Amino acid sequence: MNHQVVTYLAEGVDWIRFDVDALLGQFWNNTIEGLSQGSIYALVALGYTLVYGVLRLINFAHSEVFVFGVFAAYFTFYGLGFRPGPTVTLGIGELILFLLLALIAAMAVSGATAVVLERVAYRPLRRRNAPSLVFLITAIGASFVMQQVLFIWRGGNAEQAIRLLRPEPVFTVFNTAVTNIQIITVLAALVLLVVADTFINRTRLGRGIRAVAQDPDTATLMGVNKERVIMITFLVGGLLAGAAALFYLMKIPQGASYQGGFLLGIKAFTAAVLGGIGNLRGALLGGLLLGVVENYGQSLFGGDWRDIVAFVLLIVILMFRPTGILGESLGKARV
Amino acid sequence: MALLELSTVSVHYGRIQALSDVSLTVEQGEIVTLIGANGAGKTTTMRAISGIRPLSGGTITFDGEDISTLRADLRVVRGISQSPEGRGVFPGMTVMENLDMGAYSRKDRKNLAEDLDRVFTLFPRLAERKNQAGGTMSGGEQQMLAIGRALMARPRLLLLDEPSMGLAPQFIQQIFRIITEINEQGTTVLLVEQNAQQALSRAHRAYVLETGSISRTGTGQELLNDASIKEAYLGVA
Ligand SMILES: Nc1ncnc2c1ncn2[C@@H]1O[C@H](COP(=O)(O)OP(=O)(O)O)[C@@H](O)[C@H]1O
Ligand SMILES: [Mg+2]
């Protein structure tokens, strides 16, 4: 084995490459795939950003809120009678109905999970005025507990893939096929992100959330029920993560695994920081940017570099803009 | 019956006792002022009345009802509204959004235009700056915004914590004149100040807070003419 590694390196630097042809050749393919992947990051990133904005807490268990949604979507498919194996051909009406049911189930489960997590793990700490380090440890602990619950229930292997929809090209741009799943993912994510943005910026409750993010005590003096705002913040983050979960499972049907949230959670968190944590539009921008750039990086440097590119991008951007691309906004200046 | 009554109220920050056995009353229609040195416990008193800080002893009664353990946001619904120390303007919200926050707990949203009119009449400056971000306004403008915002709740009791702090002299005069005007329009005011001269001359009655306890009380004029008060708080030797 040793010998193999040595010859491998000796032959030249195969462990990294710099393949500009691949980058240019797959440019549009990577862009489209990156936007669809990035939409999923963005939806999950919003949950990190909202909770951070309101509580200054990095909710590490948000990745498991997402995974619970993945399982909910999977078992909705199962409950509707689908089984692993060849993709059944469905009428368009049935397909939309089944996907909507899975979407509702995933959003409901993730939303409820986030609210329960807040109740059980974080609220008791808030009552006791725990220091922020304790919140952080609790978040990491909650993440492990939730993973382990899934492991005990379903074991270590991922669920066998159930597909409702084969990826099929719908149209081509720049000689690149755009698939049905990519279109659904990007469009649905954009709609949900616009709804979330409108909710935060245009509704009374949304204004309450922004007030708590900017100055919790003064928000209370305005008659804002802080505990309720916190609950709703977790709920909204959970609902969006649940939607992301369905799109993720459509893209990666074998992705229902107890560990499935780890890397995606870290990427989504990266996306949130990239765009400016606490900033809703930043989460969208960060998610899309990350999705696209890591696909470019994969073509340029090779597949093993995909995840590294994401974090190098984060570090480089934070060196020049420590508050992320768009800066903190929801929690603008607790001056 | 007093609109607001604090009866032997104590408040702690951890082991530090900030208030001990504070009793005071505010009658309907009055301006009552609470003066005292830095660190005497004035802000703590305001926070206790608003429910931001829990009591460790005593009771607070508002309009005949014990509100000692009532949630802070529900006290706003009952009619207690505060312009906090340091103003607490939401920096990332516009003037209009800040004013809207003041009306957050209002159920009668159709009457808001009336209150907005009233605020803009009291503070024409705010009307000119509707779309400016709160965080970019001057100290005096932020103070107007904080008071205007508190009025948007249409309070029965308005709590003002050091409205003159850090303001230029011409603003200080203006703010105190407006406080009197607000009171004459029918709002009861509890005013915390370090500017004792102005506060005492505007107030019907006053309390002096010294290291967490009430040391003196009387009408504004009585305290204004009192030798020891003059020496301690009015800078007159
Ligand atoms: N958050 C806090 N934690 C600990 N001690 C506090 C806190 N806030 C105020 N105190 C203490 O309580 C006392 C009263 O403070 P405060 O009510 O702010 O006084 P004032 O408004 O009259 O200047 C002071 O001794 C102050 O140091
Ligand atoms: Mg004070």
Automatic annotation (TrEMBL), chain A:
**Segments traversing the membrane:** 38-58, 65-83, 95-121, 133-153, 173-200, 229-250, 308-327
Q: Which UniProt keywords apply?
A: Amino-acid transport, Cell inner membrane, Cell membrane, Membrane, Transmembrane, Transmembrane helix, Transport
First-listed, main subcellular location of the protein, grouped into a coarse class:
membrane
On the tree of life, the source organism's domain of life is: Bacteria
Membrane topology value:
Multi-pass membrane protein
GO BP field: D-alanine transmembrane transport; L-alanine transport; L-isoleucine import across plasma membrane
As for subcellular location, the record says:
Cell membrane
This entry carries the following GO cellular component terms, namely: plasma membrane
One GO MF term attached to the UniProt entry:
L-valine transmembrane transporter activity
The similarity annotation says: Belongs to the binding-protein-dependent transport system permease family. LivHM subfamily.
Its name, as the record gives it, is Branched-chain amino acid transport system permease protein
TrEMBL record, chain B:
- What PROSITE patterns has UniProt attached to this entry? ABC_TRANSPORTER_1 (PS00211), ABC_TRANSPORTER_2 (PS50893)
- Report the residue ranges that make up the ABC transporter domain in this protein: 4-236
Keywords tagged on the record: Amino-acid transport, ATP-binding, Nucleotide-binding, Transport
GO biological process annotation, one example: L-amino acid transport
Q: Which Gene3D superfamilies match?
A: P-loop containing nucleotide triphosphate hydrolases
Protein family according to the UniProt entry: Belongs to the ABC transporter superfamily.
**Cited PANTHER family:** HIGH-AFFINITY BRANCHED-CHAIN AMINO ACID TRANSPORT ATP-BINDING PROTEIN LIVF
Q: Under what name is this protein listed?
A: Branched-chain amino acid transport system ATP-binding protein
